[in-house]
Amino acid sequence: MTHVKNVGEKVRKIRESKNLSQDELAERSKLSKELIARIEENKDLPFLAPLIRIARSLGVRLGTFLDDASEIGPVIARGGSMKPGVSFSHKNSADPSDLSFFPLASDKSGRHMEPFIVDIQPSKDSDFSLSSHEGEEFIYVLSGAIEISYGNEVFSISAGDSIYYDSVVSHHVHAANNLAARILAVVYAPY
Questions:
Q1: How far apart are the first and last CA of the chain?
Q2: Fewer CB within 10 Å, N- or C-terminus of the chain?
Q3: Domain range list for the chain
């Protein structure tokens, strides 16, 4: 898994390369300076929405924080050989154990979509924090079942089912029936 340290270091380096202070990045991204500092100090790894806001504010794509893209041609991800990814918690916490992301196109430079295999563990906490960000998401459930809180609705999606939605609407994806699930998720976040 990509460690929090790598993401925080990349955020700090890109921010500094653009001659921005943490205050300026916080203002641009509409996040607190404290959260920016905690991310850069490797104390927090927020869920995707804050990272997408930071990426947009810095003028980079989300994958910049999660990989080291280099390939301009096609990228093939072979079954059984997924690259290490990054793990997130359902809440801003130091225990990133609920969601494990495995990138499928981490070597593709200049991409506009972020495809992942995501392993979702059941959460002991049912008080989920909804998030929103510009863009769209497509999810196909490979195994298990998930629930998606989307605005005021909750959708149950089982293996073989898919959902496509605007991610500007507040949403949250979590395991259903207190069992682990695996999904294919494709996130499009314009920058």
A1: 25
A2: N
A3: 4-66, 86-188
CA distance 92 to 107: 28
Q: Which residues contact 175 (CB under 8 A, 6 or more apart)?
A: 120, 121, 122, 123, 144, 145, 146, 147, 181
Q: State which fold the 86-188 domain adopts.
A: Jelly Rolls (2.60.120)
| Torsion angle of C-alpha atoms 150, 153, 158, 159, degrees rounded to 10 | -20
- Of 48, 54, 47, the closest CA to residue 10 belongs to 54
4-66: what CATH class?
A: mainly alpha
Q: Considering the entire predicted model, what is its pTM? A: 0.66
Report in angstroms the alpha-carbon separations of 104 from 118, 161, 168, 169.
10, 20, 23, 25
Query: 47 near 132, Cβ under 8 Å?
Result: no
d(CA 153, CA 61): 29
Under DSSP, is residue 108 helix (H, G, I), strand (E, B) or coil?
Answer: strand
Per-residue pLDDT of 111-146, as tens digits, reads: 788 899 999 999 877 777 888 888 899 999 999 999
Q: What single DSSP character describes residue 130?
A: P
Look at residue 10 and give its three-state secondary structure. helix
Phi-psi region of 19 (alpha: psi -120 to 50; beta: other; left: phi over 0): left
